[in-house]
Amino acid sequence: MDKRNIWVVCDAFDHVDSFTGQLISKAYQLSKESNGCVQVIFLGDTSEDELKRCALYGADEVVYQHCETKDERLWLDILSDIYSSIGADVIMFTNSDFSKTLSSFFASRFEVGLTADCIDICFEDENGFVFERAAMSDSVQARIICIDSQCCTCTVKKNAFVENVINEVKELSIRKWDYKGSFNTDDTYEVISCVKREIENSADLDNAKIVFGVGRGVKDKETFDLICQAGKKYNAVVVGTKCVVDDGLLPKKYQVGQSGRSIAPDIYIAFGISGANQHLVGIRNSRQIIAVNNNENAPIFNIADVKIVADVKEFIKEFSE
Questions:
Q1: Domain holding 94: CATH number?
Q2: Binding-site sequence positions for FAD
């Protein structure tokens, strides 16, 4: 049986970033399940030593095309050229704005399936590659199978997968692509006006080692403020479930769960979080989960490494001292 080509498209341009490492790690796992070959498609400007880092996560090959600019239309043409030549069974993109645009253009051009904001991917003998994502106002996890499509594509939420360095690093093949086409952005559109937009910086959550999670069990503003004060003391980022964000206690960028962010801190402390599946999918890659809840039957205790049955307000007062 021919090996299945599993692509990871790196959009970092000049380096192999952590997000790409997460995708390659998942691709490596899928390759074991499906008899696949992990190929990283790297468009941009970087060194061979940087490309070799892909092997740490399990890549078999890097297809590298040097280019001076990061433009969705140019990258689409190069990606299309590579795909038409060597083909792919599944293609994984990050969920950056750039890759969301690139993946949608690609799926439209080749009329292939595209699943957005995946939280998991698996391979089944009967169904092939199966993608999971939130659906129906985030109330369920949908399993998606591409039917009558020569290739499956997806964008993946950050931290949905764990960045994992393999024990036995394989020899990496680097294939330098030579795109023969030409593309001049100056000839295709005219800039009429520009509007400067302030972009919220949520890098603190991406890099946080300790995260405090707030759920509906935090019943008053005083308790919430105490948790925020403890967060500052322990250098922790405070996040919330959907209901907490809907109540206006935290901005949307700090919503964790199926309809928000996925995180992977060293320590996650859940205050008053019952443990609905919609939230658990966003914290499942945390290295250690500590749950504080006054309900000893709260579902979150089923996955917590440390279980504390206590009133959140009384606990946080002692915890902060």
A1: 3.40.50.620
A2: 216, 255-259, 272-279, 293
